[in-house]
Amino acid sequence: MSQRGRRMKRVKRWGCVVALLMFAAVCCAVPVSNAIGAYVALKTGASDNGGIAEEGSAADIPARMLTAYKKAVQQVGPYVPKCQGMRWQVLAGIAKVESNHAIGHGIAANGDIQPKIYGVLLNGSGAGGNTTAVADTDGGKWDGTAQGERAVGPFQFLPSTWESVGKDGNGDKVADPHNADDAALGAAVYLCGDGRDLTQGSQLQAAILQYNHSNAYVANVLGWIAQYTAAAKDPDLKNVTGTVRTVIEAALSQRGVPYSWGGGNAHGKSYGICCSPSGKSGATIRGFDCSGLTQYAYAKAGISLPRVAAAQAGVGQRIPAGLGPLVLKPGDLVFFATAPGRDSTIYHVGIYLGSGQMINAPRPGTVVRLDAVDTMSGYAGGARLL
Question: Quick one: which of 166, 193, 225, 365 could link to 93 by a disulfide (CB 3.0–4.6 Å)?
Fold first, then answer.
């Protein structure tokens, strides 16, 4: 059998193929008067990491980066006393788009990031989409070059902006944009402006627009903030009883268990197989993939499910995608497909919790967690078994 044939056989067998999140990390924090168009300073490609928050933490954000975001929220008050509504999810939304939370870089205990994160040289060459030359302001102190400016650190500040908003967040008496604590605090100060109320949608949008003067950028960041916020909420189960509660509690009990391609079954977590379409092996990871998790949860209520997500769509009362996710009820299976309407293309399944949330084993490199339903692409309806 050819290599392609073996891969297709694996995909058909497990049925939890995940769509890679495609994103471009975008420009840098600059004053509106000197804003550079979106998707300029730093670009990244496909990633297996989704950066979705869960249970007040964040499954895909490096722990040290999340600490920096939460610390900045606590520290920003003295610098901008009138600022209201600064949350770690706001900072995480910015950092997700700017640097994917510095994933792939080492983060020391004191917050220093290595290797340092640099954007493209903003010399108007067109590289990375930049068409506006920005003159050097720091002699290469922060951006490593005196030939012009480039954005720096996990929040992608221009050196000129950093000089006005940079703060010492880790107590070493140096405000360094390449330090997670310093950069997060500087971003919080910058977004707060003269004292914005970030609980107001218009003011939050204005803050993000100041960070990058692009409506596309604002929409992207707001999307991540919304996903982090929704996923961080504990589900409301006070009106959930009986077998529905049994299924949901079984799934929720596995939060934090690693994703394992091909892992999990009716008896619980297990070692998976090799390999996912992106080449990630579950053979050394004891955990769940999406359909393994649903198999386990429903088995606790005495219901046997097929192993693959597409086959699970054939069990129970099918809920068409055209009705929208608002008709889903807690305990329903929720499906995602490359071609919604064609169940043979279903690639993912979760368990609906209510309020737009699901319990989910999303993709390699993540853990079982709460996600917003719209985290995954290609909503394909649900199935009601209870």
Answer: 225
* Contact criterion met (CB below 8 Å) for 58 and 367: no
User: Does residue 101 carry a catalytic annotation?
Assistant: no
CATH superfamily of 242-384: endopeptidase domain like (from Nostoc punctiforme) (3.90.1720.10)
Give 292-316 pLDDT, tens digit per residue: 999 999 999 999 999 999 999 999 9
Alpha-carbon gap, residue 382 to 321, rounded angstroms? 7
Q: Known catalytic residue: 360?
A: yes
Span 84-112, pLDDT tens digits? 999 999 999 999 999 999 999 999 999 99
Catalytic residue among 100, 130, 170, 360: 360
Active site (annotated) includes residue 290: yes
Say what the pTM is: 0.60
